[in-house]
Amino acid sequence: MKHHWPILGASVALVGLFALLAPVRHRAWIERSEGNAVQRIALESRSLLGMRRSAWGAQVTGTQAWGNARQGFFLSPRAAETFEIRAWPRFVQALSVSPSGGLNEGELMEQGDRDRFRAWFVAILEQQADGPSPAWEPAQRDCAGLLRFAFREAWGPHTEAWRSRVGFGGPAVAGDPNPALAGPWRQAFPTEEGWQPFAKGALLRRLSCVFLGREVAVAKPGDLLFFARGGARPQPDHAMAFVRPDLDGQPVLLYHTGPEQSGGTAQEGEVRRVRLDELLHHPDPPFRPLPENPAFLGVYRWKVLTEARY
Questions:
Q1: Which pairs count as long-range contacts for 126-133, CB under 8 Å and 24+ apart, including other chains?
Q2: CA 221 to CA 239: how far, in whole Å?
């Protein structure tokens, strides 16, 4: 019998630990403020012993929302709607929301958040031309990887800890764009398999951007050019980003060359700057951003900088 006491004691300890830690009682509610299009779904969870815990497996179904159980979920309804929030073990609660009134999401973005995002996106791109950030994974260093890295880091918060992690040494270029308005874009990109942290250049172009046309005059800093690299062995889309005008007003673009073959070995490649007038006379015609060039796919803008954010 005494051989069973350790087992019994361990079982009692596990039950006690479960009662202390496992979130089993939940309630959810909506927090909103007039004039703010973004609303918060607050979720309070407690263990059997009454301790506040983070819900396990919490998710929102039936609407477009972002966030997590600890910080809350966020949404920006454009019309009245009903959805459900679920959590382990069997918690399900229906909630209803309607627009908060006042400014809508697009108008909030117009009040500076688009410009702030552009400023940081461009500044982070330019930093990579002076030397790649230690936070930019070497395996991700190609033309699409450059865009993904700068896009994610542009949302901030751009604190001293962020500067240390990314190696950003310049002055602050703007305030931080509102992270709530970033929605799922802060962590992922849309793909054919749903929102994912990785998306190839072609998917960035098709699902993360809006086509502006084939005339480069429409481009602003932070906008993108895409090229198709065909031939006998087609390669992934090539992308470049407008960053700023040069001293004489000529637009400057920035891009990563991607891995390069040299003497039978692959080189990492590098980030380069190029003036638009130089690009228009590129020695390789497929890389000239001219409307008559079939390899030039056009000028694109991130969806977060437009009204069509999703």
A1: 126/243, 126/244, 126/254, 127/166, 127/167, 127/168, 127/170, 128/254, 128/256, 128/271, 129/254, 129/271, 129/272, 129/273, 131/167, 132/271, 133/166, 133/167, 133/168
A2: 14
Half-sphere exposure at residue 1, Cβ-oriented, CA atoms within 13 angstroms: 0
The predicted model scores a pTM of 0.65
Residue 240 main-chain phi, psi, to 5 deg: -135, 160
Beta partners for residue 300, in sequence order:
211, 224
pLDDT of 130-140, one tens digit each? 999 999 999 99
Reference 299, options 247, 234, 223, 231; nearest CA is 223
With a CB cutoff of 8 Å and minimum separation 6, the contacts of 294 are: 228
- What confidence score (pLDDT) does residue 204 get? 93
C-alpha–C-alpha distance, residues 240 and 238, integer Å: 7
**Which of 216, 219, 226, 239 minimizes the C-alpha distance to 291?**
216
Grouped pLDDT means (10 residues each) for the chain, 310 residues: 55 58 84 69 85 87 82 77 88 82 49 87 95 93 94 92 93 85 82 86 91 94 90 66 92 89 68 94 92 94 79
CA 208 to chain centre: 10
The 10 Å Cβ neighbour count of residue 205 is 21
Which has the closest alpha carbon to 154: 106, 115, 190? 115
Q: Could you give the angle at the alpha carbon of 217 between the alpha carbons of 213 and 221, nearest 5°? A: 95
CA terminus-to-terminus distance, the chain: 64
Q: How many residues comprise the chain? A: 310
